[in-house]
Structure formats: structure tokens, C-alpha cells
TrEMBL record, chain A:
The chain crosses the membrane at residues 23-45, 51-69, 101-122, 128-148, 182-198, 277-296, 346-364, 370-387. It holds the Pfam family EcsB. It comes from Jeotgalicoccus halotolerans. This is ABC-2 type transport system permease protein. It comes from the Bacteria. One of its GO terms (cellular component) is membrane. InterPro entries: EcsB_ABC.
From TrEMBL, chain B:
This is ABC-2 type transport system ATP-binding protein. It comes from the Bacteria. The keyword Ligase does not apply. Transmembrane segments: none annotated. InterPro entries: AAA+_ATPase, ABC_transporter-like_ATP-bd, ABC_transporter-like_CS, ABC_Transporter_VariousFunc, P-loop_NTPase. GO terms for molecular function: ATP binding; ATP hydrolysis activity.
Length: 400, 246
């Protein structure tokens, strides 16, 4: 009975994932992934030829694996379950077993891809036994981390604290295997100790509130990841005031205190105070800059810059979508064309600033190819126009 | 006429929720739109706001139909929804500014109008706070301030007293009376009939999507034969009584 309930929810979840998967893995992104993957593989194989064994490579490998060995735990529980399911708590074993299997399968992709890169790096100076033991330990850590994560939901432990301890255990355990294979036992000891601590901290009965809250956050996290690539309707928008950014939020002067500028006034605030958006933009910029600097290849930097701008412009449009469908724009005596005009003014300015940042990054990486950066603002402008028009068209179709 | 509704039939889908509703509101009137849950009050309000398209019939605000000039039509109305709908990313001051910009108020007008409203609702020290952190009642007061700062010809208030504390209700009633005295009109849907009875000039009673009565309390008393009856008695007679007979 309870496994049937989970299966129904799992099918719904798979449907949502395949729906968004179609948008994320579109042809542009697949081409980008292939190029990025190829370049990465080429670079790693090149490094394998030139680098000599060192503790830094081992540390990097252990760190990378430690960071990605973070299995997801998805129970697919809903808020209403807090009311309806507690009487059936003792008959929920099958539900949670199905949830375990599903969750384990969800978190495999990233460790699998990272393993390939780590394998290439580990082949510098390590024998087969050492590499096999490293990956055996990684598999063991994945399952034990899952078990610990699962147990932690029913405790007072904070999610970030569990993640931090798991990363430390993963890193130390993997590092010890690389230093001395016999030290694998120490890693196992860490896992056992943390598992026992978790078991001892567990509540005697299920904390439905914890489980439902955890699932809600996991779902939001999934939507946030997806929202980096496409618009997500179901995401709960959260905002946060960053007082240090208030200086950038202009108060309209008398001549601009009117319906023509009111949405621009709103859009800047939505962007600056969005809980995630400014941080996502910052993360994309930093991550792409590190990759461009590390690889140092002209064409890769160019592709990464253009793709980074594309991702950010795509992100920006969620602000328009979030605002345009609210109640007030439909009630206020302001024509919808003012919303669109305001959006285009606001987004062109923000996109221009972002393309300048990419231009600076590109110039630092390739100072002799300065003139290439002239393409960035043009690319940002064209993308912004095309994507905005697509949103307006969708909006028109919906309103018809 | 501030509002004219003629033979309005409409709803959310092709299946109509309200049928053949007609009524008018003159300047300086407070009208109570009264009905059971699901009677069609909110649907009627959504049609007046232009959020739904009528299946048939027409609506005019200050002699303007929404099809003729959507901006002019909306400029005459201020709306206070049943549950506060706020921008989580805006402070109270910014909510006021957005509303003012939408309705074409100058910064000077905003400054002079907002002070008494903020004082009346005891929010004068909260201008730089995000209303999303307020209690439900305080959020509703933000909605009231945003609507009353505009000083429109017609206020549409859905369940005005919901979530307000007694002082908030008193402030709102004072404000409504003062607006009526300035010849502005108010259409409010409410379940709190005792308060409606004290302050409304006229009542429109809707049941199962149809208007079943329209008039002053005395006219409704005559219609139901309850010469000493309260609005509650009249309302029950008009809606509940009929259902009991069925």
C-alpha cells in the first residue's frame, strides 16, 4: 500500500524531471557540454603527461570526490502527509525503502562524471591497487553518507553541519587511502562513529515536520538548479534585503515618478533582493573565470564567455515572468507595454554590466586578444532581445 | 453613476458562476455586497476589476467601459483584496511609491497624503520595513494605505475587516465614512453584517450567483416583511429561509 503511494509520487517526480530535462539539455547546452567535456578531457590527459606525482594532486582528487559524494535524500513527502500519514507510521517501511532506492539513484551522475576526471589525475603516480582502493572507499563513503544523511533528517542536526562533517570524513578517509592503503580502516572507523552518533541522536518516532521540511527544501533546491537553465513556475521566490546594495537602488526623481518607470523601479529591487539570483550570477562568473583561467585556451574562453552570458540572460528573464503574472499589474491603470518597456530598459543595463565583467575576465586571460570582447555586449544585447520577445509572445498566448 | 453593471453573466470558465446581475453605485454611497460563501461576490468583484471577461452584459466605471480605455477604467478604482497581496521584495515606502506611480500621483502628493494614513494605521515607523515580515493585520493595513492614498472614485474592498484588530477596524470605518463624505463610493463584500448594517447605505444580496435583493435596510425589511429585523434576520430570511423550504 505505502510502496504504491511512493511509486505514484515517483512517477510524478520523474515526469517533472523529464519535463525540465528537455529544456536543460537542449541542443545548445549539449553542444556546450560536448565541447567543455572534450576540452577538459584533453587538458587532463595533457596534464597527465606533464605533471609529476605530488601531494597537491592527491589533495585535489580527495577534495573533488569528497565534495561530490553527497547523496540526495528525497522522500517525496508532502505537507498534507503531516496530517494524514502519522497514523500509518508503522506501515510506512515499504514507502521509505522505495524512497531510499530512488534517492540513491538520483545522486549518482555527478560522482560518476567526477570519477573519470579523478581517475586520470590519480593515474599520475599511483598503482592500480591504490586506485581501486580509493574508488572502493568512495563507493563505501557514498552509501554510508546516504545512510547518515537519511538518519540525520530525524534528528536535531542542521543540514549544513551534517554536510560539513561528511565532507571532512570523505576527504580525510580518501586522503588516508592515498597516503597508505592500510589506513582505509581509519576511514571505516570515522564512518562507524558518525553513524552511531546519528543513531543516538535520532528521535524515537518519525519527526514528520522534519521530513516534510527536508523534502520541501530538497525540492526547492532542485527547482533552483533547474531555474539556472529555464523558467520554473513552481519555485517559491524568496527575497533578502542586502542593505549594502540599497545604494544602487535609485529613488525616482519627480520627472521619473510615473508609470513609465515604475516597473523598472520594481525590477531592480527584485533582482538585487532576490534570495538566489545575484548569487547564482556571481557563482557563474567566478566558476567560468576559474575555468577560463585554468584552461587558458582562446576558443574555450570565448565559448565559456558567450555561454556564461547566455546563462545569465536566461536567468534574468525569470524576474519578468515572476512579476508579470501577479495581481497588481492586472489591476493598476498601467498598460502592459510599460512593463515590457521597463523590463527591456532594466535588463539591457544589467546585461551590459555583466558583459563588461566577462570582458574584463577575458582580457585578464587573453590580454593580447582585447578586440574579441567587443562581441560580448552585442551578444548580450541580441540574446536579451530574442529571449524577451519569446517571453512576451508566451505571455500574449496565455492571455488570449 | 460611479459604477453601472448591466445583466452581467460570467465566471472563471465557460460555465457561468454569476447570472444576469445588474446594479448601480452612485457617488458618495457605501454599498454592502452580501452573500454566502460561493454565492458569487468575489467573482462579481473580479469582473468589475477586469480580471475576468464577462460572458454577457457590460460594466462601466465613471461612464467608461474597460474595452474603451483600460487605463482610464482602472484609474477610477482602488482595490483591497481579501488576503493581502504584497511584493516581498519591496518595503512599505516602496509599495506606496509603486501605487502612486501607477495612479499618476506626484511625489509631493504622496508625501502629503501618506503621513495621515500611516499615522491612522500606526505604521509611521515602519516605512523602511518589508511588509512581508508584518502580521496579517499589518499587511492588510498596507493594502488599505495603498488604496486610500490614491483617492479613487470607487473603492472595491473584499472582506474589509478580515484580520484587522479592533482599532484597525475603527480606523477603516472612519476612513470609509470620510471618503463617502467627499463623494467617493465604496463597494465592500462582507460577512460581518452587524458592522455593514451600521455603515452601508445600501445592500446587494447575491445568492447562488444571482442578485436576490438590492436596497436600503428599510427596503429589504419591507421586502421580507421583517419590519424590526436586523440585517442578519433579513439576510437569513432571503437566503437560508428559502433553502430550508427547499
Amino acid at each position: 500500500m505505502s510502496s504504491k503511494l511512493f511509486n505514484t509520487r515517483m512517477e510524478e517526480d520523474i515526469k517533472i524531471r523529464s519535463y525540465y530535462g528537455k529544456f536543460i539539455f537542449n541542443s545548445h547546452f549539449l553542444v556546450f557540454l560536448m565541447i567543455a567535456g572534450g576540452v577538459l578531457l584533453y587538458t587532463l590527459l595533457g596534464l597527465r603527461e606533464t605533471l609529476s606525482p605530488s601531494i597537491y594532486i592527491d589533495t585535489l582528487c580527495a577534495l573533488l570526490m569528497a565534495a561530490v559524494l553527497q547523496p540526495k535524500y528525497r522522500t517525496l513527502l508532502k505537507e498534507a502527509d503531516m496530517l494524514f500519514l502519522p497514523p500509518y507510521e508503522k506501515r510506512m517501511t515499504a514507502y521509505f525503502k522505495r524512497a531510499d532506492i530512488y534517492s540513491l539513484s538520483l545522486g549518482l551522475a555527478l560522482p560518476a562524471v567526477t570519477s573519470v576526471a579523478v581517475l586520470i589525475l590519480l593515474s599520475i603516480g599511483h598503482n592500480l591497487t591504490s586506485i581501486v582502493l580509493f574508488f572502493l572507499m568512495a563507493v563505501l563513503l557514498y552509501f554510508s553518507a546516504f545512510n547518515i544523511r537519511r538518519l540525520s533528517v530525524n534528528t536535531d542536526w542542521k543540514k549544513w553541519a551534517v554536510t560539513a562533517v561528511l565532507i571532512i570524513i570523505n576527504f580525510v578517509s580518501l586522503m588516508l587511502v592515498l597516503i597508505q592503503p592500510y589506513l582505509i580502516t581509519l576511514g571505516l572507523l570515522f564512518i562507524i562513529i558518525f553513524t552511531v552518533i546519528m543513531k543516538k541522536s535520532s528521535f524515537k518516532t518519525l519527526s514528520w515536520l522534519n521530513y516534510v521540511q527536508y523534502e520541501k527544501e530538497a525540492l526547492q533546491q532542485y527547482y533552483q538548479t533547474v531555474s539556472m537553465f529555464t523558467n520554473v513556475k513552481r519555485i517559491d521566490k524568496a527575497f533578502k534585503r542586502r542593505r549594502f546594495l540599497d545604494i544602487l537602488l535609485w529613488e525616482p526623481k519627480a520627472e521619473k515618478f510615473n508609470k513609465k518607470y515604475m516597473y523598472e523601479y520594481l525590477f531592480y529591487r527584485s533582482f538585487m533582493r532576490d534570495h538566489d539570483l545575484p548569487m547564482i550570477v556571481l557563482r557563474i562568473i567566478i566558476l567560468f573565470f576559474i575555468t577560463m583561467f585554468w584552461i587558458g585556451n582562446l576558443y574555450v574562453s570565448l565559448i565559456f564567455s558567450l555561454f556564461g552570458i547566455y546563462l545569465i540572460v536566461l536567468q534574468m528573464s525569470q524576474i519578468y515572468t515572476a512579476q508579470a503574472y501577479l495581481l497588481w499589474p492586472k489591476v493598476w491603470p498601467v498598460s502592459r507595454t510599460y512593463i515590457q518597456d521597463s523590463y527591456i530598459r532594466y535588463s539591457h543595463k544589467v546585461v551590459f554590466v555583466i558583459t563588461l565583467l566577462f570582458a574584463v575576465m577575458f582580457t585578464i586571460t587573453h590580454p593580447d586578444k582585447l578586440y574579441y570582447v567587443l562581441a560580448f555586449p552585442v551578444w548580450g544585447y541580441i540574446l536579451n532581445r530574442v529571449l524577451s520577445k519569446a517571453i512576451y509572445k508566451k505571455e500574449r498566448e496565455l492571455s488570449d | 453613476m460611479v459604477l453601472e453593471i448591466n445583466q452581467l453573466t460570467g465566471g472563471y470558465s465557460k460555465e457561468p458562476v454569476i447570472h444576469d446581475i445588474s446594479f448601480n453605485i452612485k457617488s458618495g454611497e457605501i454599498i454592502g455586497l452580501i452573500g454566502l460563501n460561493g454565492a458569487g461576490k468575489s467573482t462579481t468583484i473580479k469582473h468589475i476589476l477586469g480580471l475576468l471577461r464577462p460572458h454577457s452584459g457590460n460594466i462601466k466605471v465613471m461612464d467608461t467601459a474597460i474595452e474603451t480605455d483600460v487605463e482610464a477604467y482602472r484609474r477610477h478604482m482602488g482595490y483591497i483584496p481579501e488576503a493581502p497581496i504584497l511584493y516581498e521584495e519591496l518595503t512599505l515606502r516602496e509599495h506606496i511609491n509603486m501605487t502612486a506611480m501607477a495612479y499618476g500621483l506626484t511625489p509631493k502628493e504622496v508625501e502629503s497624503r501618506k503621513e495621515p494614513l500611516l499615522k491612522r494605521f500606526r505604521l509611521e515607523d515602519k516605512e523602511d520595513t518589508f511588509p512581508s515580515h508584518f502580521s496579517k493585520g499589518m499587511k492588510q493595513k498596507v493594502m488599505l494605505i495603498c488604496a486610500f492614498i490614491v483617492e479613487p472614485d470607487l473603492y472595491i474592498i473584499d472582506e474589509p475587516f478580515l484580520g484587522l484588530d479592533p482599532l484597525g477596524i475603527e480606523s477603516l470605518i472612519e476612513l470609509m465614512i470620510s471618503e463617502r463624505d467627499k463623494n467617493r463610493s465604496i463597494l465592500m463584500s462582507t460577512h460581518i453584517l452587524a458592522t455593514a448594517e451600521r455603515y452601508c447605505d445600501r445592500y446587494i444580496i447575491i445568492d447562488q450567483g444571482r442578485k436576490i435583493a438590492d436596497g436600503t435596510l428599510n427596503e429589504l425589511r419591507q421586502q421580507t416583511g421583517l419590519s424590526e429585523g436586523t440585517l442578519d434576520d433579513v439576510y437569513i430570511q432571503l437566503t437560508g429561509g428559502k433553502r430550508h423550504e427547499q
